[in-house]
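INFO batch 0412 | record 1 of 1 | parsing
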Amino acid sequence: MKQQDAIALLKADHKAVKELFAQADETSERAKAHLQRLGEQICAELTVHTQIEEQIFYPAVQERARRGHKEERDEVFEGYEEHAAAKKVIEDIRATDPGDESYKPKLTTLSELIDHHVKEEEHELFPSVKEMFDEDELVELGQRLSELKARLQPQNATRA
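INFO prediction complete | emitting tokens
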């Protein structure tokens, strides 16, 4: 079986979180326990995803982009800033009771932030990364992302 490259792994994460947001959007605010489980799962998935991007993917892209590629460096810096904004909303969601009327709107705000971030990565950064790295390098990077993701997820696996 062919190993997943970095971009395929990150896109799969994006898709999974988008599906969780769709479920949360369709969930009644009265279904507090279900909404809380979805909120916790979304926050956990995004926390792991941001860590693997910030610890492995972004630094690799920055290193490769040092010579030229100013646009790609700027996209990575913007990614870090978008992550910082998302982390603040995640922290706020985790501190909010799911029965609070602001809980679901906070999930919606996070969804909109992530949707914007995903579109920029998938339409701007990822195509550039495919040109900057060859296929073997992307597979090796994907392996590193996958290994870190596996190490970070055990405490979150029971929440699904």
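INFO post-check: The chain has a mean pLDDT of 92.
INFO record closed
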